[in-house]
Amino acid sequence: MTYLDGTGYPTPNDIGAEPKSAFTLNGETYASVADEGDAMVALYNALSAEQLDAAYLTGTFSDVVLGPVEFGTGSYSKVLFSAQAGVLVSSLSESQQALVMAAIKKWVSDFAPAVSDPLVAVYTSPDAYSHTYVAWGGTKSAGVDVDVSGTYMRIDGPRVWIEVACQQGAVIRSQTHYHTIYRDKQTDYGNQLNP
Question: Is 0.85 topped by the overall pTM?
Answer without folding.
Answer: yes
